[in-house]
Amino acid sequence: MHGRVKTRSTAEQQEVKRKEREKKVKLYKAGVEKLFQKRDGNCFDNEVLEISAQLLCANPDIYTVWNIRRQVILYFKTEKSSEDFQLLLENELPLTEQCLRANPKSYCAWHHRSWVLDTMPVPNWKRELALCNKYLELDERNFHTWDYRRYIVTRAQVPAEDEFIFSTQKISTNFSNYSSWHYRSRLLPSLFPDPLNKRPIREDKHKEELSLVQNATFTDPNDQSAWFYQRWLLGRAHQSLLLVQAFVSEQLTFAVLNKSVRLDKSNLSLQLFISNNPIKGSWKPCGCNVDSHVWIFVPENQISSGSLTSGSLEVTLHHQNKQIDQLNLHIKGPGVEAWGSKKPQFDAQFSQGLTSVLETELDSYHQLLDLEPDSKWTLLTIVLLMQAIDRHLYKDDTMQKIGQLKKIDSLRSGYYEDLRSRYEIEYFLDNQEKDGLSHPACVEVKLSGYNLSALYHLHYLSLMQQVNLSCNQLTDRSLPQLHALQCCQVLILDENLLESLNGMPSLTSLLSLSLKNNRISTKDNLKHLVMCQNLNSVHLSGNTVANDADLEVYLKGLLPKLKTEEVI
Amino acid sequence: MEDDLPTEYDVIVVGTGMTESIVAAAASRIGKKVLHLDSNEYYGGLWASFNFDGLQKWMEECRQPNKPSETVDASKAKEGEKLVKAGNQFSTVSNLEEKWYILEEVADSPEGQLSSKITQTEGEEHPASKAAVGPGEGAASSLGGESEKLEKEGNCEKPDSDEAKDNSVLNQRENWSQNKLKKEYRKFNLDLAPKLLFARGSLVELLISSNIARYAEFRSVTRVLTWINGRLEPVPCSRADVFSTQNVSVPEKRMLMKLLSSCLENEDANKEFEGFEDKTFVEYLKSKKLTSNLMHYVLYAIAMATENTLCMDGVNRTQRFLNSLGRYGNTPFLWPMYGSGEIPQCFCRLCAVFGGLYHLKRAADAIIIDANGEKCIGIMSGQQHLETANLVMGVGYAPPDFVKTAPSGGLSRGIFVTDRSILPSDKESLTLLQFPPLDGAREPVTVIEVGHTTNACPKGLYVVHMTCKQQTTAHEDLKAVVEHLLHVEFSDGTVARIDTDIKSTQTAHQEGSSAENPEGADASGERPAALKPQVLWSLFFNCPETSQCDFSADVPSNVFLCSGPDLDLDFEFSVKQAKEIFTKMYPESEFLPRAPDPEEIVLEGEEGSGEGAEQKEGEEQGDAQEGPKEAQSEE
User: Fold this and answer.
1) Where does the signal sequence lie (chain B) (predicted)?
2) I need a surface site. Which of A484, A553, B390, B595 has the fewest CB within 10 A?
């Protein structure tokens, strides 16, 4: 056995490791026990610090131990001189560093470090900043470090310019960095705001950033971090909140906004005026969420039909007591109802300058598409650009590209289907006659045969009395969207993929619901019909549940107004 | 006079070159009794790295005529044995040319200079004085008087204030003299055979798998340059480079990335290269409609090929480059700290740890062959008769009879100590430049520039290595490239050189300082054209290239010859050769299995206790930090 060095066998090594681990567990458990005892006895001393430090080095993710530690430190704050207290806190820093070495994504350790610095009499922000930079060299994508860095930067009052340079550096070493791109989107608007308020940032910088993103997307079209940033850059200009529809009758009063909002939390309020008199009452979100497009008015005293005959009706929208929009209502006939409506607006409202930038972008990405015909991000970006530039010009192209996306990225075909459905509905709403949607006529709105997989913008149909959504691909998940159809009396959902009515909102105007040729199999799946108490006819032929002998009895139990001959 | 060595071995290895050292380590590692000799007083033979003083001694030896052959004392041979005298035919270095370009001593006053006698140049023409230099080539720099003239003749603008400032900084550069440089001799590590390691090349993998990596330290090469349109340009080779560079347009970026990824894909899986089997790589690149500068990057800098390289060969070379990207740094290459000569020594160290016996300054004077001439019995070393089952020897020591086919080629080498980088940047760079064949006829030249952070030279200086296939003499072969990159005229340090380089405006794209200065997106793109480095000292030499020789034909069956340095960038050839030799000697044994770490070694009296292992933990960590580290952790 000349020259052979005797080495420990793996089994031997494992045994040694096992024993070591056992010993560690024992020590650990004893430490925890001791620590808790001391805390229970309000015994805040150096030993607590020592024990907790050892425990945290072994496992930095026990919140309780960190909390005990902070308790002790705060106790010492009153006991020690300022110098000694500073020293004590400075010793916390190496501890957190050690913990972060064990787990660079330990929420507790990062949090403790920022607490220490905020508690410290004389914090050294420069040193912290340097430390962050070092960490980000080791792992440029650790969002904990980025988060902590932003905290340091705020405290140290580092100029945004410096931070912008830093972000650029990080992106040039590895542009696959969500944190750094995101950081730019936070820095740029404050550094280079657009004086015209038409773009997210000043024109020259905007062009620079778009070109930077282009460099990234052309280098690696499969890296989504750059595409995400690009979406921010191309994001449509901020759309202001508008009051788009309103309806007043003795039984039902509601207002419709162009965005789904939560009135109370955003300092928004609605007010109904009849003959210039404000009507007392409260506004409730329609549907089951706290925010909504459609807000229902619950008056303190019922609105009398007599009040609808005289004078003007008006709904106003206020933000922090300042009126931001208003809608005048037309009175249909004495004592019946009143309504008002504005035309929906789906075109992106960009300035001429920005539109030309988008057109240049579109050209470039067509070029990229020639090189990479199967790049999904390129295709999707082209779709978004076309929609932003001219929705009507690019209608066919948009639909064709979405079809292509469904094929090459079949895992997300549902997403693309929904996107297509949204565009289809937008085109449909655009094409309605000028006043087609603005009064509760008995004309049927026929959103039928579009293969819609999801429903969007239904709040623009809130005044409609007959809505036909047949021959689509709608599933149960679309049902909550129907909440906006507050005036709807006849709703046709034939030839869809509904399996149940779970999620059916309360529709008080609804009299007739047609569900022919869906996939509803059991009576139990119909129980949510109870939400629409005024239904007098339900059509269920073409569903397995229609064969159920007890169906009629069951439905009558649910819906008192149901007419026998109308259950088919 | 000589130490008495044990007289019986499993393997005697003669020469401490790369292949020899790997074989020695591998044999020792599996428990074989190894004797490793080298007649020199240093390790590595033609693979060695020297400090400045050591290199001077080496040159002196090279200049001496071959020692008169000592007659081998035939009486030492036992009955039935023949003695064959060891040779030195393939270790001969030729065309050695050393030159200084600075004063022996810095004079106190500008007068009283030019006292040095070795500084006489051969009256080389300076490119600046040649009318033939085309406007785009603008690589001329010269002394003050000439430059003024050039500036007037050429259409270049007055240097702006930035440039002027830059020049004034340059003027404050340290003034080096020969004596001053010699005084710093310890700070040099100059390689006879400079080699880079591909980050996923066979040597790096071997260093890791055998655990020899802990004996070595590396730095990653920071940039790959190329010579294009008459100037140096960083080659975008990594994803980050491609993203940042402003030398290629956005669509070109996609083309480049696309080409590189199609080269990386498995050949069987795609029909990408169908029909190009017999065509050249250039033809394939042309079929991809690459723009001319992309073609240049891929062909010369990434594939490191020439116009004659066959398609699949080019693809393989590209793959080799790309596969090594992203492991340790921004480029695919590692450079050994303290020079390439460290690497054979790492293997020697492992050999010694496992009981190999070392003796430098001890030659194998003769090889003992059995009566039939079929088997080697051992060697005569000094007065000793040493027996061995296998003999491994560097080709330099091989008796002429063993190698009847003389090596066909040689290497042309140039080493230059300069005062600045060939392409200055903010941080010290470690540069690889594959200089494309000039005017088609010449060979491509491998240029490696290293600075003081690799311990190649004192701070403020750079060492430039040039290597190419020998055609005439090293000086002649490298002359053109030297003139393009370096200022090779005598300088007494009193006249400041003024930059006359005219920035090339031929390229359509904005000239970029991007690679060095990624945040410089808002810079005007105008970089003061750099002054060529002043050469302080240079050395040219030729040595034989023996990797193509057939070593098996004329040797006894248990004698294995090892090649000297080859032309390739990496040590791959040596690793392959060593493995082959080892497998022939010990077909059943594993080649360099992982060597245990210190804490895995059971010392006397600590059997079974965990304490000892714990104590050694610190030591282990210290060791581990020296080895190549895995690339940064990903999220």
Assistant:
1) none
2) A553
